[in-house]
Structures are given as structure tokens and as C-alpha cells.
């Protein structure tokens, strides 16, 4: 049996999903970034099931999703003018702010940290669901821990099956990469590049923003080096596919744009139109298709690291890091400015 997929535009489906959440169940729902696996953020038992279903380590905190910025002080201390300015400018949208938490929020949501990650998603179905449930939703991406995030309802149903009561289908995710995570708990730092380009945040704050280095066991988790990974080993090419090895018959190619490369078992072109937004929106689905083919390896072309290209390269690096074996966890992840 698999999860019930229901259209997110169906008001009855939304009401049913809200009722599932209110009685402590789990609902997968669309956001503009990736699909989330939601539970009532104030129901510690429901949140515990999210960790269980995802096989997610308990040290990795969840993002709390709100229907509107005005609800921020349910879960966070909302007295930082920078947070207010960023919320006014970028919410609803692919930005998660890490702020001081409210003590009422169950510890399991924040993995015991005294901060909480919060965002207002831009997908109308997500906000309608949160509003109907009448409670913020703690929601990670709706995939087993470490795997590629789902960008369609079918991906969720394939990945999680009947562990989730309802999957609301809101179509393919528009952005296709997870939210950018910005910590304002201390000096501003980007904890995860994502669907909101760093440049937009830098412009809004009037300052350069450091990006936290990827590490295996960080204080700010989600920076896990081996993450967003395919089961098939993935390597990033130095340049375009011409640089690939001659023996390509068992390899798949992830091309950033139109390519004349030949001899691969399969080729996925991320952006036929050459737009980085298109590449971002199609990245995870393309990785999943290549991963399903039972190939010996996936070779990915790099892209320029500006705008969304920063997050695309971040995900490709993490997907590829298992080729060299897991690095030992640094005890205290250093910050690296710029990148
Ligand atoms: O776009 C997204 O952010 C999606 C959709 C569903 O909203 N969600 C998502 O959640 O990507 P997840 O759980 O897959 O990734 C959330 C990341 C985790 O890596 C977690 O470590 C980090 O956010 N995070 C959450 N709360 C945090 C906190 N208080 N401090 C530092 N990092 C935090
Ligand atoms: Mg995730």
C-alpha cells in the first residue's frame, strides 16, 4: 500500500489533511522548494514520528513552517529588526531564518538547540494547509535522511510509501532546491545555500555573508557533507563533458545545458534553455532518474557559482562526497567566508 496522493487544490483534501495533522498524523505537502513531511510543531509525539519515518538523527533540527510572517512570535523571539526586514522582503519564499526559539516549542523540533529555523513557504497549498491546521508545521524534506529531496508528489509516495497518511499533490516544485538558511542567532551566516541567492540577501542586509563550511557533524546540522546523495556514485567533472573518460557505456551524464557529448548510457540536460532557474528546478528529478538506471556512476557538469548556481554546486558536492569515503567529523566546524 502506498500513501494517498490527493490534489492540493481539492478543498476537501486540504481539510482532511489538516485533520490528520490535528490528531498527530503526518502529511506530505508541496512547497515552492521541495516537498515537506509535516507534523504539528507543538506535538512532540507527531514530530518524533517524522524523525522515525525519515530515519533522521535526532541531532538534526527541523524547520518550522508558518502560514504568515505575523505568526513568527509563536515559535521565535521576533525582536531582531534584520529578521523583520528580511521577512518583509523575502517571505513567503525560499528563505529559512535561524532565530532564538520560544521555550514553548518542544525540544525535539530544535534538537535541543536554543534556536529555531523558521520559514513561510510560497506555495499557496502549503500556507492553506498550515492555516487550516491552525498550528505551525515542523517539516523536513519528505525523503529518507541523506537522499535526494522530492520535487513531485510521486517522488514522496515512492520514497515514503504508507508511512505518511496523505500526500498533497501541488505539482512539480517551482524552485526545486531547498531554502537558503540564514542564521541571525549571532553574526549573520549562511548555513545552507539554497533557493534564495546569497546575492539577494547580501543586498538586503548591506553586507557580505559568510557561508558555513560543510562538515560531517556540525553544530548547525543539515550541513552534513554526505547528503542529498544518490545511491549511484557521483563525480563532478572539471569542465564540460568532453573531459569525461572514454569508457562511458555504464555512466550517466548530468549536463547543465544542451550538449553534444555522446557515448553515455544516459544524458540528462538540466537546462535546455540555459537558465540556471530551470537547472535548479530539474536537478533532483534528473538525479533520481539517473539513479534509477543502475549505472556504475554519474558524471555531473559543474555550473557557475553565482545566484542559484551556488546551491546547485553545493548539492552536487554533497552528493559526490561519498566517492572518497566519509571524512571524520571535525569537532568544531570552521567558518569559511565567501566561497
Ligand atoms: O526548503 C526547505 O527548507 C525544505 C522545505 C520542506 O521547507 N525543508 C528542508 O528541511 O529542506 P530539511 O529538514 O531537509 O533541512 C533543514 C535544515 C537541516 O539541515 C537542519 O539542520 C537545518 O535546516 N536547521 C533547522 N533548524 C536549525 C537550527 N535551529 N539551527 C541550524 N540549522 C537548522
Ligand atoms: Mg532534507
Can you offer a commentary on this structure?
The protein has 339 residues and is of the alpha/beta class. It has two domains: 4-205, Alpha-Beta Complex (DHBP synthase); 234-319, Rossmann fold. It is built from nine helices and 16 strands. The strands form three sheets. It has a ten-stranded mixed β-sheet, with helices on both faces. A four-stranded parallel β-sheet has the order 12-15-13-14. The radius of gyration is 19 Å and the shape is globular. Bound molecules: threonylcarbamoyladenylate and magnesium ion. Residues 140-141, 149 line the site of magnesium ion (MG).
Secondary structure blueprint with pairings:
Elements: E1 4-7, H1 11-22, E2 27-29, E3 36-40, H2 44-54, E4 63-65, H3 81-90, E5 95-100, H4 107-110, E6 115-119, H5 124-133, E7 137-138, H6 153-160, E8 166-169, E9 180-183, E10 189-192, H7 198-205, E11 211-212, E12 234-236, E13 251-255, E14 266-269, H8 276-291, E15 297-300, H9 309-320, E16 335-336
Parallel strand pairs: 1-8, 2-8, 4-6, 5-9, 12-15, 13-14, 13-15
Antiparallel strand pairs: 2-3, 3-7, 4-7, 5-6, 9-10, 11-16
Bound molecules: threonylcarbamoyladenylate and magnesium ion.
Summarize the structure.
The protein is α/β, with parallel strands linked by helices and 339 residues long.
Key terms:
10-stranded mixed beta sheet; disordered C terminus; 4-stranded parallel beta sheet; 339 residues; single chain; binds magnesium ion; DHBP synthase; globular; binds threonylcarbamoyladenylate; 2 domains; Rossmann fold; 9 helices; alpha/beta
